[in-house]
């Protein structure tokens, strides 16, 4: 009995759908007839007339070109990060090649026979590109996290910089990530820097107040200093090579003991907008450390 009821119900449902279909056809018969006739007319027009075929083809090409350009723009946007990283790697290669050429040129012009410090072997250094994935620079003891680690060749005590200037030094490293202590950490990091025009060197330290500025201390009072003077790394450590941009002199004053100047430095790197950085690998770092440790015994 239940099977008969189901059969009857299916027949009624099919009948109702057919009724709705024919009702739709009857209601919109005029519109449907117009669409059919119009389609036939267009087919005959474009199929048997060369001018209309050419116009249709031209319009189709324009539409396809527009759609392809939109597709390229969308896919290009999503590939910006990959393209940017590729450009950074290429830029690193060009910078190293530029350093090698400068080194060769300076040595060729040097008539004293004395090797030029730090510029003699540009191959002493290599750059490891990375990206900041966590930026904590709003506290006193700040740190950064990079998306590169031991697998990429990163080790503790390697310097970190970006296209603007120095950023900090690698503190801890895992297989795929590394933690960086930035310049903005007053109790842990002091960097050896110098005034580019006079070569007077001192220690760069942050006072924990404004992340745009740090202070260069221990500069002798007889050194000529002007606002806007460039400050670069001194090269007196195995962390940074000589000559990497640090910042510019904003103002200066006599230190507390009156034996040194204290220079306020506007940092070149923007620590609130860090993204792509480079870890600087000094290939002779371990050898220098070993020699210095033996000398201190």
Structural overview:
The chain folds into two domains: 2-76, no CATH class; 127-283, Rod shape-determining protein MreC, domain 2 (Thrombin, subunit H), CATH 2.40.10. 39% of the residues lie in helices and 26% in strands. It has five helices and twelve strands. The strands form two sheets. A six-stranded antiparallel β-barrel has the order 1-2-5-4-3-12. A six-stranded antiparallel beta barrel has the order 6-7-8-11-10-9. Strand 10 (245-254) and strand 11 form a beta hairpin. The longest helix has 30 residues, at 80-109. The chain starts with a helix and ends with a helix. The model is unreliable at 107-121 (pLDDT under 50).
Cα separation of the termini: 104 Å
Structural class by helix and strand composition:
alpha+beta
What is the overall pLDDT average? 77
Q: How many helical stretches?
A: 5
Q: Describe the strand arrangement of the main beta sheet, using strand numbers.
A: 1-2-5-4-3-12
Q: What is the total tally of β strands?
A: 12
Low-confidence stretches: 107-121
For this structure, the CATH topology of the largest domain is: Thrombin, subunit H
Secondary-structure element order, as H and E? HHHHEEEEEEEEEEEEH
The main pleated sheet reads as: 6 strands, antiparallel, barrel
């Amino acid at each position: 009995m239940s099977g008969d009821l189901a059969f009857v119900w299916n027949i009624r449902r099919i009948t109702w759908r057919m009724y709705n279909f024919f009702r739709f056809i009857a209601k919109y018969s005029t519109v449907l007839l117009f669409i059919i006739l119009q389609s036939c007319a267009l087919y005959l027009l474009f199929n048997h007339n060369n001018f209309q075929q050419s116009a249709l083809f031209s319009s189709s090409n324009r539409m396809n070109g527009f759609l392809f350009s939109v597709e390229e723009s969308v896919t290009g946007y999503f590939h910006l990060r990959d393209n940017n990283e590729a450009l950074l790697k290429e830029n690193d290669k060009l910078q190293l090649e530029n350093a090698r050429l400068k080194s060769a040129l300076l040595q060729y012009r040097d008539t004293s026979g004395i090797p030029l410090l730090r510029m003699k072997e540009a191959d002493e250094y290599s750059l490891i590109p990375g990206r900041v994935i966590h930026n904590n620079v709003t506290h006193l003891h700040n740190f950064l996290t990079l998306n590169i680690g031991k697998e990429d060749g990163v080790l503790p005590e390697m310097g970190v910089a970006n296209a603007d200037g120095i950023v900090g030094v690698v503190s801890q490293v895992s297989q795929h990530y590394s933690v960086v202590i930035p310049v903005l950490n007053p109790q842990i990091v002091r960097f050896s820097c110098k005034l580019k025009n006079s070569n007077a060197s001192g220690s760069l330290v942050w006072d924990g107040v404004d992340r745009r500025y740090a202070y260069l201390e221990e500069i002798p009072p007889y050194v000529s200093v002007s606002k806007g003077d460039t400050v670069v790394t001194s090269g007196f450590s195995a962390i940074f090579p000589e000559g990497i941009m640090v910042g510019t002199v904003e103002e200066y004053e006599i230190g507390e003991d009156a034996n040194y100047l204290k220079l306020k430095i506007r940092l070149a790197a923007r620590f609130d907008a860090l993204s792509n950085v480079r870890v600087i690998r000094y290939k002779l770092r371990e050898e220098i450390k070993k020699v210095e440790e033996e000398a201190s015994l």
